[in-house]
Specification:
It is built from 11 helices and 13 strands. It has about 325 residues and is an alpha/beta fold. The structure holds NADP nicotinamide-adenine-dinucleotide phosphate and zinc ion.
């Protein structure tokens, strides 16, 4: 059974894993802590590791490389947010054995069916005590929801975003931005977590958006695409598919090895995905200001969301409001 201390360390390891989220390529963002209980019943952290920015080395290797074998004893525990990988050649599970770790506490099994339980079974076969968090303590699948969804369903995690005014317009005919600067910064943090960003052809042609991730000190390469039925003047890859056959969209995206997609409008594209149920989450950024110069077709009927989604978060964000819904 997991002790209260184990649960606290698991919480820390899950929180740490957020640091590199969106920066680890096709790999999930994992964290690892090595804790020694020999001289302190509360445990002393010997080292920590995160999945590297390129995806490799993995978190366990980064943590284990910072401790020497003589620091590890039979009261050392390795905490990790995802089951250690196991492969015939070099892998985290083998490194754990070679370092002499005798107890491993894991937040989540690997959702990839080809890897699921392999690491755990190998560790157990070598006499390591392996403990797994219960469903309620397993935060890995919420933090790495993009990776988790892809592994489980073999399709991308789709987030639909729309910024609207207090009176629900998604476009202002006078000025470009609907929400304030802080909210746009928030949206760059959402971009950071996705592999690709997609806009409709009208948005691309009318706004000429940069479709990149602009966060100080963070080098994130998000892949931009434009949805268009006809060839438009653009260097970006164009995607075309029939909305009534969404599987087509998934297979186009899967060919690009993309696990998560952020659909950033405009409203026609937003509604297309929403009405066809082709999404996991919806992010609505609502301004506290009215838009007086717009067109009816840019107005969002919030019932479209309420009828299909469950609100999972709502926060005042400076003077705006950010609401997150999930597909039900
Ligand atoms: N408030 C916000 O969050 C937000 C975000 C982005 C943009 N905007 C604003 O919204 C305005 C544009 O919105 P909009 O509703 O007019 O258009 P839009 O959604 O940007 O673009 C719609 C067009 O995208 C193409 N498209 C969509 N789905 C497709 C598919 N499955 N396959 C191929 N092509 C597909 C079609 O182009 P064709 O059939 O013409 O090829 C369609 O007419 C912009 O001016 C911008 O300022 C607001
Ligand atoms: Zn590994």
């Amino acid at each position: 059974m997991l002790s209260k201390l184990d649960l606290n360390y698991l919480d820390s390891v899950n929180n740490l894993s957020i640091k590199n989220l969106g920066l680890t390529g096709a790999n999930p963002s994992v964290a690892c802590l090595i804790v020694d209980y020999k001289n302190n019943s509360q445990g002393v952290v010997l080292s920590y590791g995160l999945t590297s920015k390129s995806g490799r080395p993995h978190a366990e290797i980064n943590a284990l490389n910072k401790v020497s074998n003589y620091q590890i004893n039979n009261q050392t525990t390795l905490y990790v947010s995802l089951e250690p990988c196991f492969k015939a050649n070099s892998c985290c599970a083998k490194k754990i054995i070679s370092k002499g770790i005798k107890r491993v506490v894991i937040s989540s099994l690997d959702p990839n069916p080809q890897i699921y339980e392999k690491g755990v079974n190998f560790l157990k076969s070598r006499g390591v005590k392996v403990l797994l968090a219960g469903a309620r303590q397993n935060k890995f699948k919420h933090i790495n929801k993009y990776f988790y969804n892809f592994q489980k369903n073999q399709r991308p995690f789709i987030t639909l975003k729309l910024a609207i005014s207090k009176n629900h317009y998604s476009k202002n005919l006078i000025s470009k931005n609907v929400t304030q600067e802080e909210t746009q910064h928030y949206m760059h943090k959402i971009r950071l977590k996705h592999d690709a960003i997609i806009v409709g052809s009208n948005t691309y042609q009318e706004d000429n958006p940069k479709l990149n991730c602009r966060l100080n000190g963070i080098d994130k390469k998000i892949r931009p695409f434009v949805l268009a039925n006809f060839k438009i003047k653009s260097k970006l890859p164009q995607i075309k598919f029939n909305m009534s056959n969404i599987e087509n969209f998934y297979s186009i995206i899967n060919k690009h090895k993309i696990q998560s997609v952020l659909i950033e409008g405009g409203i026609k594209t937003f509604k297309n995905f929403l009405i066809n149920g082709a999404f996991n989450e919806v992010v609505i950024c609502q301004s506290s200001k009215m838009i007086n110069k717009s067109k009816k077709r840019y107005k969002l009927d919030k019932k479209l969301i309420k009828n299909r989604c469950k609100k999972i978060d709502s926060q005042e964000y400076f003077k705006d409001k950010i609401e997150i819904y999930k597909n039900v």
